[in-house]
Design brief:
Number of strands: 5
CATH architecture of the largest domain: 3-Layer(aba) Sandwich
Strand order of the largest sheet: 2-1-3-4-5
Radius of gyration: 22 Å
CATH topology of the largest domain: Cytidine Deaminase, domain 2
Distance between the termini: 78 Å
Low-confidence stretches: 4-8
Strand content: 15-25%
Structural class: alpha+beta
CATH superfamily of the largest domain: Cytidine Deaminase, domain 2
Number of helices: 10
Largest sheet: 5 strands, mixed
Helix content: 40-55%
CATH class of the largest domain: Alpha Beta
Order of helices and strands: HHHHHHHHEEHEHEE
Shape: elongated
Number of domains: 2
C-alpha cells in the first residue's frame, strides 16, 4: 500500500470532521453551529486525540444547553463520564472569559443607560447557578457602577439578606445608589412575598441615608423581573 494511502487510512475519521467544524466556525461564527458542535470545538483543547462529539452530546443531555454546561459547578461536570480536570478547566476558563467580557460592558459605565448590557451580565453571572445568590451593584453620583459584589449565597430557594449589611457596605464605598440582584434557581423570576418584604426593608433603610435603590432585579433561566417595572419600588 502506498505510504500516502496508508497515512490517509490511519487518520481518525473525527479529524476531518474537526477540520470542517473549524472552517464553518471561522466562516460563519458561532451562529453557524448548533450547541453540540460549538461545545465540540471547546472540548478540542482538552481532548486533542479524542472524538469530542459523544461527550458534547452527553454534557448537553445532562445540563440542557451550552450556557448551562459552561456554568455548571465543577463537581457536577465531573459526574459525567469522560469529564476530567482538563475538561472542567477548559469549560470554566471559557465561562470566566464570558463573564469578564460582559462585566467590561457595564463596569464604570452609566448603569441606567446601558440597562440591557447590565441584564445580560447578570444573566451570564447568575441565571445558571443552582443556589441563590444576592448581588449588589453600587453606583456613584453619576450612576456609574463602582463595585459589583455578591454579598450572600444561600440554598436552592433562599438567601439570607440583612438590610443593615447592605447599607453598611454602600456607605463604605461612598455609593449614592444601589441595584439589587438575585437569582431564582427554579428558573421562574417571579418575586416571592419574602423578596418583596425584604426589598421594602432595604428601600426604607436606604432612604434614611439618602441612598437610592434604583431597582431589584430577579434573574432566572426563563427571563428576569424588575421590581421597578412591576411597580414594587
Amino acid at each position: 500500500m502506498p505510504e500516502a494511502d496508508k497515512t490517509h487510512k490511519d487518520k481518525p475519521d473525527y479529524i476531518g470532521h474537526r477540520e470542517r467544524l473549524r472552517e464553518r466556525f471561522l466562516k460563519g461564527g458561532a451562529d453557524a453551529l448548533p450547541d453540540y458542535e460549538l461545545l465540540e470545538l471547546v472540548l478540542y483543547g482538552a481532548l486533542p486525540r479524542r472524538d469530542t462529539k459523544p461527550l458534547a452530546k452527553a454534557l448537553l443531555t445532562r445540563f440542557g444547553s451550552f450556557a448551562d454546561v459552561i456554568s455548571a459547578r465543577p463537581e457536577r461536570l465531573m459526574e459525567v463520564d469522560g469529564v476530567g480536570e482538563g475538561v472542567v478547566a477548559g469549560l470554566k476558563v471559557l465561562h470566566a472569559a464570558a463573564l469578564r467580557l460582559s462585566q467590561a460592558e457595564v463596569l464604570n459605565r452609566t448603569a441606567l443607560s446601558s440597562w440591557s448590557a447590565l441584564i445580560d451580565y447578570c444573566r451570564a453571572s447568575m441565571a445558571y447557578h443552582d443556589k441563590e445568590q444576592f448581588r449588589i451593584l453600587f453606583l456613584d453620583r453619576k450612576n456609574k457602577i463602582i463595585a459589583d459584589e455578591v454579598q450572600q449565597e444561600g440554598t436552592v430557594d433562599h438567601t439570607p439578606v440583612y438590610p443593615r449589611e447592605v447599607i453598611k457596605r454602600a456607605l463604605e464605598l461612598a455609593a449614592t445608589a444601589i441595584i439589587l440582584v438575585h437569582n431564582h434557581p427554579s428558573g421562574d423570576p417571579t418575586p416571592s412575598r419574602t423578596d418583596i418584604d425584604m426589598t421594602k426593608q432595604i428601600v426604607e433603610a436606604s432612604e434614611k441615608l439618602s441612598i437610592t435603590v434604583h431597582d431589584h432585579v430577579i434573574i432566572g433561566r426563563e427571563g428576569h423581573a424588575s421590581f421597578r417595572q412591576l411597580g414594587l419600588i
